[in-house]
Amino acid sequence: MTYVVTEPCIRCKFTDCVAVCPVEAFKEGKNFLVIDPDICVDCDLCVPECPVEAIYSEDSVPEKWSHYKEINERYSQEWPTLAEQKGPLPDADDWKGVAEKADQFDASPADD
User: Fold this and answer.
1) Would you tell me which CATH number, out of the four given (3.30.70.1670, 3.90.1170.40, 3.10.620.30, 3.30.70.20), belongs to the domain 3-83?
2) Which of 11, 59, 80, 90 has the maximal Cβ count within 10 Å?
3) What are the DSSP calls for the chain, one per residue?
């Protein structure tokens, strides 16, 4: 079982989870993070660190966000690894509690 980043991460991209990941499983998109299922060691350390409660074990992803399993798998193969914690997006606090923000997902890799 691996862990999956879901919709609450969109437009926030807090990276507290990255700081505790022992294997560099996080990949960074322009406004979203994903977890590479081939790298994740199922340690559970990232889950309590996520301030928007966006990370779930693969078996516990809410049905409404089940498609994020595929999103994590796909984009983990395309986006660059994020190995260190960095600041969230500038307007993350404005988006933190917003529901239904799938239409804000940007499939572009992170700008660096």
Assistant:
1) 3.30.70.20
2) 11
3) --EEE-GGGTTT---HHHHH-SS--EEEBSS-EEE-TTT------SGGG-TT--EEEGGG--GGGTTHHHHHHHHHTTSPB--S-----TTHHHHTT----GGG---SBPP-
pLDDT, tens only, 26-80: 999 999 999 999 999 999 999 999 999 999 999 999 999 999 999 999 999 999 9
Amino acid (1-letter code) at residue 52: V
Task: Please report, for residues 13, 72, the alpha-carbon distance to residue 5 in angstroms, rounded to integers and kept in the order given.
Answer: 10, 7
